[in-house]
Structure formats: C-alpha cells, structure tokens
TrEMBL record:
Gene3D superfamilies per record: Cobalt-precorrin-4 Transmethylase, Domain 1, Methyltransferase, Cobalt-precorrin-4 Transmethylase, Domain 2
Protein name: uroporphyrinogen-III C-methyltransferase
Family: Belongs to the precorrin methyltransferase family.
Domain Tetrapyrrole methylase: 50-266
Pfam families listed in its UniProt record: TP_methylase (PF00590)
Length: 314
C-alpha cells in the first residue's frame, strides 16, 4: 500500500518495516561495509598489529580486499622473494620493505632463516608498528604460517591471518583443471609437499596414492626436483602408466606455462623442456586431462584466460 501524499519520513519507514535500510536511488552510492572489529586481533597495550597475509598465486588481481587494506596500512612488510612488483607497489612508500624470501631447496639462496623471520616479526611488533608478513599463496598452506603464529603466541603477541588463494587453486582456475569432477570420478583432493624440512622426499603412503589415483586429484608443492622419484614410486606401487600428470610453472602470472604428460612420460618431457626457474606445481589425476576435453567440446578452440588488463585493452 502506498503511503499517503505528504506523509512524514517516519511513516514511510514504518510502511517499509521498522529497521529496514533505505533503498539506493538513482545516482546514489552504496556505502562500503565497515570493517568488522572482530577481525582485529586483541593486542596488549604498546604492541603493534601483526598480520600474516596471503598474496595469492601471483596475479595481483587475485588479492583479497582485506589483503590490500593491510598492505596500504602497513609500516613494515616482511615479504617472500617471489612476489610480483605490482603487489609490492601497493605498500606505502613510507613503509619498510624487507625481503625474507627463501627459494625451495637452494642452500645458497635461503634468505632469512625462519627463526630470524620470527624474531623480526616480534621485534617490530614490540616497537608498536603495523607489521605485515606477506606470503605467496595462503599463509597456512605450506607457508609456515603456523610456525610464526606459535612463536608470536609464545611471546604474547596476537596475530591475524588474512587468507590468500593458494597456488593450486590459482593454477587450477587459470588452466581450467577442476580439482573435483563427478564424471571424472575425482571426489577428493590431496595437497602434498615434495620436500620435507630435511630437504628429502616425504615418507608418503605410495601404495595408497597409486591405488586411488583414479578418484582423486593430487597436487605436489615443492616437488619438481623429485619428479623422477615420485613417478618411479607411483609406477612401482601400481599406478597406471597412462595416468595424466602435469607441471605448472609460475601459475597465474604472465610467465605461466604448463607441461602435460603421464606418470610414465612426464619426467622425460620435463628434461626436454626445462622451465624458467619459477615455482612449479605438479598435478596428478584424471582431471589433468580436462583442458583437452574442453578443446574437443569447443571444436578445437583453445580457451585463453583473460585478465582485467586484457579486457581493458580490447
């Protein structure tokens, strides 16, 4: 029922329902949602805020809004080595940038050791500074975020975690490889690390991996240097030779490249086509062949992932 002409605003509000928010009319802008105070870590007086922030897989457009806000408010940023300049450029010029990055398995290029990183986080927090620990991917997926949270908690410093898109999710989206698919039979996902703290291949249940390769998608992080051994162990425990397998380097970045093969052929293909030295993920399972399926369905047209920048230039 329409409100009578000349009805006061209160009457109109009552007609819509008590507490109902006014609608945005033409030309009016919606107000940004306020940041939730519950998301702020409760910090003892005098200590700065510490945020473990996931920078995502490499494409700056995949950063979360909260990650951007934390970067813009940072006074100190301790960052990984492989982050693109576009992301680091979001940090204020007045902030201190510290590269604490380590490269997988390279003793001569490990950067700051983990204990040193922990001490830096603690030292800056005690000085009352707003500290961001900026990590590739997600802080809590093979990112040592748990170790840093333990250290800070032990020393009385509360920290928040701002999640990021993990590399496997970014690569899967970029290459259009579903990690689960009913028709392919993939009803579970396994994220594994190809190198332990002692820099050796983990003691995995290879028999289980080989037997269930038809019903799961497996992603190895930091396992490229163990590719030959991984494939040998899978084959030795009964994985079918034709099981699809793929290497993805520098996922979601302009340097992204993928090399597809099988458990039997991929090691040889990797030797023939060395990469550019970027971070590499290994995908194993039947969904790895999904891009070829899409190509068949589309009549041979290869689907190209577009970024916002690409659309702006078209």
């Amino acid at each position: 029922m329409a409100a009578p002409a000349g009805a006061p605003p209160a009457a109109e509000a009552a007609r819509r329902g008590a507490g109902a928010p006014p609608r945005c009319g033409a030309g009016q802008k919606r107000r940004a949602a306020p940041q939730s105070p519950a998301a702020e870590p409760l910090q003892p007086s005098g200590l700065g805020r510490v945020s473990l922030v996931g920078a995502g897989p490499g494409d700056p457009e995949l950063l979360t809004l909260k990650a951007v806000r934390r970067l813009e408010a940072a006074e100190v940023v301790l960052h990984d080595a492989l982050l693109p300049e576009e992301i680091l450029a979001m940090v204020p010029a007045s902030a201190e940038l510290v590269n604490v990055g380590k490269r997988c398995g390279m003793a001569r290029d490990r950067g700051a050791q983990q204990l040193e990183i922990n001490q830096l986080l603690l030292s800056h927090a005690r000085r009352g500074r707003s500290v961001v620990r900026l990590k590739c991917g997600d802080p809590l997926i093979f990112g040592r975020g748990g170790e840093e949270l333990e250290f800070l908690a032990e020393h009385g410093v509360a920290a928040e975690v701002v999640p990021g898109i993990s590399a496997c999710l970014g690569a899967a989206a970029s290459l259009q490889v579903p990690l689960t698919h009913r028709t392919c039979g993939a009803n579970q996902v396994r994220l594994l690390v190809g190198q332990t703290k002692a820099m050796v291949l983990p003691d995995l249940d290879w028999a289980e991996l080989a037997q269930n390769v038809h019903k799961q998608s497996v992603v190895f992080y930091m396992g490229f240097k163990s590719l030959d051994t991984i494939c040998e162990r899978l084959l030795a425990h009964g994985a079918p030779e034709e099981t699809p397998m793929m290497l993805v380097e520098s996922a979601t970045t302009p340097h992204e490249s993928a090399l597809a093969g099988t458990v039997k052929t991929l090691p040889g293909l990797a030797r023939e086509r060395p990469g550019r030295g970027g971070p590499v993920l290994m995908f194993l399972g039947h969904t790895v062949a999904f891009p070829q399926r899409l190509e068949q369905l589309s009549g041979g047209r290869v689907v190209k992932r577009q970024r916002v920048g690409d659309l702006d230039e078209s």
